[in-house]
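Dear Dr. H.,

I hope your travels went smoothly. While you were away I took the liberty of generating a structure for the chain from your last submission, since the lab meeting agenda had it listed for discussion. I wanted you to have the full record in hand beforehand rather than looking at slides cold. The sequence, exactly as received, is reproduced here:
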Amino acid sequence: MPLPVLLLDEVDHVLTIPVPKVHANTGVSMSIKNQWGCIQAPSMRLKLHPYFARVIFEVNRALRVAGSVIDGRFGLNRNGPMRGDVERLDWLMVADDILAADWVCCEVMRLDPRRIAYLRDFARALSIGLDHALTIEAPFGGAPHGAKGVGELKSRVASDGPQMRRAYALA
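The corresponding predicted structure, in token form, is as follows:
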């Protein structure tokens, strides 16, 4: 699948900046799905939709997506992306792990991330078990000044071992 040469060969890492959306086909559209548009040909994206979970994993791996800034000033609810309603949310989330970002964002949006097929598949592809105790840890022992630690948002992210996942919601 052709991806932009600029993103593949001329940058070390990609930072994705999605808007949180409920999505009719995939359940949600956030950090992981945001790279779907990097598949340049719309006809190719349509052909690849039946294989979405595997393809989006490979796209994110090829692009070396290093983190996410989820722009939660506004979000899209209901049956997006075409028929959703815009809602004012007034938050920003920063994470060094796109799965962690999407998992937490689902919980913030009161959606069960375990019901989002491509998130489950993404976690499996990374060998992260979803039934284990979930941990989010703030670097340096706490959230940055002015930030709400994800724990305050009652959110968790899967971790099967020494991996640490960080995400913050900034008010």
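Two observations you may find useful: The CA atoms of residues 36 and 56 lie 7 Å apart. Helices lie at 5-9, 42-48, 52-63, 98-108, 117-125.

With kind regards,
E. W.
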